[in-house]
Amino acid sequence: MKLKEKMQATISADIVSSTAMELKQLMEVQQNINELIHQLSAQGFISWGRVSKGDNIECYLKDPKNSLRVALLLKSFIKKTPLYVDLDAPSTEVAGNSGTDDKSKSRKKRLNLFTTFGVRIAIAVGSMRIAEESCNVMDGEAIYASGRAIEQQKTSNRKKITIKSTLFFHAEDEELNDRINAYLGLIDVLFKRATARQCEVIFHRLTGKTEEEISKLLGISQSAVNQHSTQFGWKAIEQVLKHYEHIKF
Q: Rounded to whole angstroms, how far apart are CA atoms 38 and 49?
């Protein structure tokens, strides 16, 4: 009898409008994400991860169970990032032929996209041939699938940038795909309308902290923590995570 292949998970992500950022700001964001990846690894949420090609993030999980929680941790962590903008400072994107005012307006629009969406994230559940941190190699069905999902969303070569969705899921089971992507569509809406402070509270809730612990950590009242959680829609997130973490992948 052929044994069922053990499923693993990967997460691929890219920072929205990263090329519109000042180099210093982008480097700070990259450093903060690297620190988060180390924390997630140390706490057992992921096996390992990396920031590659400047604005791309990849994580490998032996057990897919935590993959949605990790994706939402990344999303809330990046969306709570303050963006200090000097439109006169050079960005990391290659200069074009547009006038100064047009470039400034275009850059402001792109930076607003970062504030609104933060990051695009794709989860893929599948097999992996190799995922070895010591040689920095990920190779297999899952990482290809999550990488393709992000590449299909790239907007760097389009004159008009539109972002409809930022959370994606892929597995071989089409029924599961439809179900999880429906959940992610609703979660996407919650994140799009969320403030930086709400995302900060949700980030800590995703790590398992209580309202009292978050209150002390952020220096705000427990009722304020509860209000931010409620306004975001934390109860809905909890229900989706509970369902997802009981799926037999």
A: 8
The pTM of this model reads 0.90
SS (H, E, C) 42-101: HCCCCCEEEEECCCEEEEEECCHHHHHHHHHHHHHHHHCCCCCCCCCCCECCCCCCCCHH
Q: How much of the chain, in percent, has pLDDT values that exceed 90?
A: 73
- The helix/strand/coil state of 126 is strand
Residue ranges of domains in the chain? 8-194
User: Residue type for 184, please?
Assistant: L
Query: What is the spatial order of strands in the sheet that 119-126 belongs to?
Result: 48-52, 56-61, 8-15, 119-126, 167-170
Number of H helices, E strands in the chain: 9, 7
Note whether 192 and 72 are within 8 A (CB). Answer: no
Q: Give the model's confidence band at 102: pLDDT under 50 very low, under 70 low, under 90 confident, else very high.
A: confident
Query: Mean pLDDT of all residues in the chain?
Result: 89
CA distance 130 to 9: 12
Give the span between the Cα atoms of 222 and 234, in whole angstroms.
15
Pick the CATH number of 8-194 from 3.90.1580, 3.30.70, 1.10.287, 3.30.1380: 3.30.70
Helix (H) or strand (E) holding 143, with range, is: helix 141-151
Residues 14 and 119 sit within 8 Å (Cβ to Cβ): yes
With H, G, I as helix, E, B as strand and everything else as coil, classify residue 242.
Answer: helix
SS3 call for 222: helix
